[in-house]
Amino acid sequence: MKPYLFLGLAVALLTAGCKKNDPEADLPAATHTGANTAGCLINGQPFVATGFGSGPGRVAGLGGGFAYGGDYYLRLDGKLGGQDGSLHIYLRSIPDYKSNSLIRTYLLNELSAYIPIASPTQCRSYGAFFPNDNSGEVYITDNIHVGKVDFVYVNLADLNRPITAGTFEFTAVSSLDPTKTLRVTSGRFDRQQ
């Protein structure tokens, strides 16, 4: 009987240890209430929209929404491994964005310029990560390094403050070194514009 007790205790401790080391536990819950929360894992490390800086120069944690006559933009600012960074998702020309037919998958699978280097009219749908390290490096999706955004909830009852919630994942390649990539997984957002 004692071996079973020992085995049960070992399994319990192992399970508790696994939960404690789960990086997804540091991400905000996947909600759809307009909570203005967002986060993801970047190469397995938590990245949460918390903003950075202080005082008047503080950068907000989450921004974006519908803009440019039917495009959708999402910006998460936070820290990755102690370093400031910004994750952007841009969805070009969402058809019929004033209807509730937006709950679907949007692909990030084309070569694209990116904001702020290009104007929205020059951009295709993309996902990008900007490390704030003064290197000028940007990680961006293209036709080989792809991803997707799933809108799981859209409430446009008040067009002045619509709520969009969803999930995202993508692989992006460095603008400075095509052998370097990063992987964004477990992404979620709950945004009230």
Question: What does the model show?
Answer:
- This is Lipoprotein.
- It comes from Hymenobacter glaciei.
- There is one protein chain.
- The chain starts with a helix and ends with a strand.
- The longest helix has 19 residues, at 2-20.
- The protein has one domain.
- It is built from one helix and eleven strands; from the N terminus they run H-E-E-E-E-E-E-E-E-E-E-E.
- The chain has 193 residues and is mainly β.
- Strands 1, 2, 3, 4, 5, 6, 7, 8, 9, 10 and 11 form an eleven-stranded antiparallel sheet that branches.
- The model has no long low-confidence stretch (mean pLDDT 87).
Order of helices and strands: HEEEEEEEEEEE
Structural classification: mainly beta
- Shape from CA axes? globular
What would you call the quaternary organization? single chain
Rg on CA atoms, Å: 19 Å
Tell me the number of helical segments per DSSP (H or I, 4 or more residues long): 1
> pLDDT average, as an integer?
87
Distance between the ends: 60 Å
> What's the count of strands?
11
Quickly count the domains: 1
The description of the largest β-sheet is:
11 strands, antiparallel
Tell me what portion of residues adopts beta-strand conformation: 35-45%
* Poorly predicted runs of 5 or more residues: none
> How much helix, percentage-wise, in residues?
under 10%
Protein name: Lipoprotein
Organism: Hymenobacter glaciei
Features:
1 helix; mainly beta
Task: Give the helix/strand layout.
Layout: H1 2-20, E1 37-42, E2 45-48, E3 62-67, E4 71-80, E5 83-91, E6 105-108, E7 126-131, E8 139-140, E9 147-155, E10 163-174, E11 181-192
Antiparallel strand pairs: 1-2, 1-11, 3-4, 4-5, 5-7, 6-9, 7-8, 8-10, 9-10, 10-11
Protein name: Lipoprotein
Organism: Hymenobacter glaciei
